[in-house]
Amino acid sequence: MQLHDLRPAEGSTKKRKRVGRGTGSGKGKTSTRGTKGQNSRSGGGTRPTHEGGQLPLVKRLPKLRGISKRGSNKNIFKVFYTAVNLDALERLFDNDAYVTPESLVSAGLVGSPKQHVVVLARGDVAKPLHIKAHRVSEAARQKIEAVGGSVELLPVTINKHMPRS
């Protein structure tokens, strides 16, 4: 067997349709396009959203306006916080423990150390905790400091380049 003997498998290839090659071919004259009209012309045809002159759906729908949470025009200045309550801190941490975003991740309360943490006042705390968080509610701060704990606020980054005080 040589290179010129190679052939594709029987039935695996199809001859292409040769249109516009005379009336005897059966596909001459109008070349299978029908007669006249938009679709018979070269470059003719309609876009996929064409609805025959009816106002298209894309024009009938209301236009998106304003800043949406998950839309194309996101508010790049919005800060999302992960809430942690005092009852969870009381249950998971010992006396004089330092509560940081990293320790909250290892405790399973927060998914990533990059998430912003807010400490809220649900529940009571009986042991002094030293908390480093991005935000602490006023009621939570009072409960923590009443038992001898401390609160330190971490800087909040709005987006990668702009820290917020």
Written account of the structure:
The chain has 165 residues and is an alpha/beta fold. The protein has a domain at 81-164: Ribosomal Protein L15, Chain: K, domain 2, CATH 3.100.10.10. Helix content is 16%, strand content 17%. The chain is built from four helices and eight strands, in the order H-E-H-E-H-E-E-E-H-E-E-E. The protein has helices at 57-60, 86-92, 101-107, 138-146; strands at 81-85, 97-99, 116-120, 129-133, 135-136, 150-153, 156-157, 163-164. Strands 1-3-5 form a three-stranded parallel beta sheet. A three-stranded parallel beta sheet has the order 2-4-6. It has a two-stranded antiparallel sheet with strand order 7-8. A hairpin with a 5-residue loop joins strand 7 and strand 8 (163-164). The longest helix has 9 residues, at 138-146. The radius of gyration is 35 Å and the shape is elongated.
Short description, anyone?
By secondary structure, the protein is α/β, with parallel strands linked by helices. It has four helices and eight strands, in the order αβαβαβββαβββ.
Annotation keywords:
three-stranded parallel sheet; Ribosomal Protein L15, Chain: K, domain 2; 165 residues; 17% strand; alpha/beta
